[in-house]
Design a protein that fits this description.
This protein is mainly β. It is built from one helix and 25 strands.
Length: 318
């Protein structure tokens, strides 16, 4: 699943590892894809079938949640749009309901999760049951509301798949099995309980449509986070300002020399940032010659952003 980066231009892309309890992270810019490593969490333990399920971000990008097919829990954590850090993990046990009254087989194969537009509720669906979780309710016995169960027999029901917030603020839920001709939707997802107004198979398509799931819908409207200084994420955001600042050699293995007439004018500040906006090196210097040399031996090989006063350069360390 994707979430807009705090810079307002790039994207985070997160992927669950299969059976290794890792969440893998990537940065997508307009011209490149960067591997940003992974984070490990002790629970829930991923199983062989847990590539089924869904990942989601809250509309403001500050939370990350997922459900796994064979684990009857919701994973919820805080997400930092600038650094990509996932923190403060919480586990919620999903209620267990039979697939339908009188059917003794328990429905625990979870497949969908989505935040409400206001971020207060999580909607979770297994194949045959749909739930609402009130994130503001500390009492777990009151936090869960059972929105819907399948509306036909077990053999005939096209069980629910993933769910996404649509541009109209409704949450659309897909159906699997057979040639589906409709999506179900939650008309008022910001309302607690029955007022959320679930409408089964109310978005109809021409038959036979064969439309099983809604398209992946990250929050394209989420913009730059102006509360943090998080720059720059994309190479394209770095203007090439020659001849104001020369940097050589580039690529560099041991040292970099910066050179500019402007460096002779007084105290200068130099910063080296990675592509996540994290400042890895900072120093001040004076230079009567307009040149200054810095060591890059402690930096891993990769692409960095060098900022000297208000002049910016992309540099490569080998």
């Amino acid at each position: 699943m994707a979430c807009r980066h705090a810079d307002g231009k790039s994207w985070w892309l997160l992927k669950m590892g299969k059976k290794d309890n890792q969440i893998y992270k990537f940065i997508i810019t307009h011209d490149s894809i960067y591997d940003y490593g992974s984070q490990y969490f002790t629970e829930p333990i991923f199983g062989n079938s847990d590539s089924y399920g869904q990942l989601t971000f809250s509309p403001d990008g500050k939370e990350y949640s997922y459900v796994m097919a064979t684990k009857n829990v919701v994973f919820r954590a805080d997400f930092d749009r600038c650094s990509g850090s996932i923190s403060n993990p919480r586990i919620y046990n999903i209620p267990v309901n039979n697939r339908a009254p009188g059917v003794a087989i328990v429905d625990t194969f979870n497949s969908g999760v989505s935040y409400s537009p206001n971020g207060r509720f999580l909607y979770v669906n297994a194949w045959y049951n749909l739930y609402q979780l009130d994130l503001d309710e500390p009492d777990s016995s009151l936090a869960w509301y059972h929105v819907a169960n399948m509306d036909t027999t077990y053999d005939q029901f096209q069980n629910w798949t993933v769910q996404y917030i649509g541009p109209d603020g409704k949450i659309y839920i897909g159906h699997r099995n057979g040639f589906s001709t409709a999506f179900s939707y939650i008309a008022n997802p910001d309302v607690k309980g029955a007022g959320c107004n679930f409408c089964p198979k109310c978005l109809q398509f021409p038959s036979p449509a064969g439309v099983n799931t809604p398209p992946c819908m990250p929050n394209y409207a989420l913009g730059k986070d102006t509360t943090v200084n998080c720059w720059p994420m994309g190479i394209g955001q770095v203007e090439q300002q020659a001849p104001l600042l020369m940097v050589y050699p580039n690529p560099a293995a041991t040292t970099l020399t910066v050179e500019s007439e402007g460096l002779k004018q007084g105290l200068n500040e130099l910063q080296v940032h990675n592509l996540m906006g994290q400042c890895l090196h900072k120093e001040t210097f004076r230079s009567a010659t307009g040149r200054h040399v810095i060591s890059v031996q402690g930096l891993p090989a990769g692409v960095y952003i060098l900022k000297v006063n208000n002049m910016v350069r992309r540099v490569v360390v080998e």
